[in-house]
Amino acid sequence: MEINLLESKLLVEEKKIILGNRIPKDFFVTSGIGESDITIHAGSFHLALKDAGIEQYNIINYSSILPGIANKIEKPEGLVHGSVMESIMACSHSKKGELATAGLIWGWLFNKKTGEKYGGLVCEYNGHDSEKEAKNILEKSLLELYDGFLEDFELKSIEILIRSFVPKKRYGTALASICFVNHEFPVLGK
Prior knowledge:
13 strands
């Protein structure tokens, strides 16, 4: 059976759909530390990813917003090696003897009138302060973000994840991450 170029183009056009921006759905949280005498990226950072259990994925970082459909789960088994994992990550690099601290804080916005979950806010801490000071900074950062939503929304269900250590090797990395495992794709049309 022969299909000419015009018929081929029409068949391809018929199969197209228009998708809206994908919406991150299920996520898990993790943290890790790593140290290396060689380098940061292929050394301490990679080893921190390994400690966190996410070294097998290509990580893409998001900014600090959780959609209303987002749902915290346990890390699933069977994620594909080399697949893309999108995350909201805090990451701190340090040198031997210097504290590396990474932390996340997140909370959910609920509509004051309807009680409906609207979405979430996340703040990252990447630095060299103690975990206590990092927690203090994270709490202040979240309240500062929440200020723009204060009139219509309540901030609830706040969680914090902080990881820190002092490397004994030349380079150290601490990280904390929210890792998305799937997305919804709104279909806008054909």
